[in-house]
Design a protein that fits this description.
Elements lengths: L10 H10 L7 H12 L5 H13 L3 E3 L9 E3 L1 H29 L4
Antiparallel strand pairs: 1-2
Length: about 110
Amino acid sequence: MGVLSDFGRFSEPALFVLISLLDSAKHGYAIVADIESFAGRRLGPGTLYGALGRLERHGLVEPLAQSGRRKPYRLTAAGRAEVRRALDEMRALAAHGDRRLHGLQGGAA
């Protein structure tokens, strides 16, 4: 289990933010738009900035110099490692579920 498991019900929005920052630094609105495009979820400002604050406190993201009113964030090395860990955990869970699902298709209803 990694850092995100300590976030409880806030772990999903935090993971979405980390995934959004994998390809480049982004400011809040760009993060929200990106998450909506790949996850179909729209994070409200409180959820977004709450997640960013928790991620920053854990050293998973860091703010960059503010550009006007926009404050971009980027992923840290620890953040990249946490995304990798979380996705590996999801893949293992999905594989386990698939094995059970395929086992059920063979006979049980």
